[in-house]
Amino acid sequence: MTNSGIDHLDNPKIEEAAAWLAITPRRQREKPAVPLLRERFGLTPVEACQAISAANLIIARAG
User: What's the pLDDT tens digit per position in 13-32?
Assistant: First the structure.
């Protein structure tokens, strides 16, 4: 797995969720991001938000 470069992410579940979110188109997600990440990766609401932020950074850096 690649590192998003966000220093505060020391939880591998957040990194995994961010990577998945960054490569999965919105139309392929069956729920809004926070409930989906909580269910799929077992994240807390705060961790899900951190994963969303990390995914946005991954996308921006790839662009």
Answer: 999 999 999 999 999 999 99
Question: What confidence tens digit (pLDDT) does each residue in 26-62 have?
Answer: 999 999 999 999 999 999 999 999 999 999 999 999 9
Domain coverage including residue 17: 12-62
The verdict on residue 1 lying in a domain is no
Residue 2 domain flag: no
CA 56 to chain centre: 8
Number of domains within the chain: 1
